[in-house]
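> call design_seq(struct)
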């Protein structure tokens, strides 16, 4: 199964991860901070290997770029 996992937020030492499956259904999963890399931050795309998570640097960069383009497009709406 192909899932998209995004680090949504930190609640103390707990990571709240948004998981979206192939059918666009979303659920939330929690993980202890010790299961994630120390440099993981909100908005990162995550992959799971065994009991630990890794940041997918390429997918995170692509997602951030896509969101930046979307935000720029929204800011320019209605401007000639």
């Amino acid at each position: 199964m192909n899932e998209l996992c995004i680090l949504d937020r930190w609640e103390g030492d707990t990571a709240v991860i948004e998981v979206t499956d192939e059918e666009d259904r979303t659920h939330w999963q929690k993980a202890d901070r010790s299961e994630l890399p120390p440099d993981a931050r909100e908005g990162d795309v995550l992959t799971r290997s065994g009991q630990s998570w890794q940041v997918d640097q390429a997918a995170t960069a692509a997602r951030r770029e896509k969101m930046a383009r979307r935000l720029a497009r929204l800011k320019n709406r209605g401007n000639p």
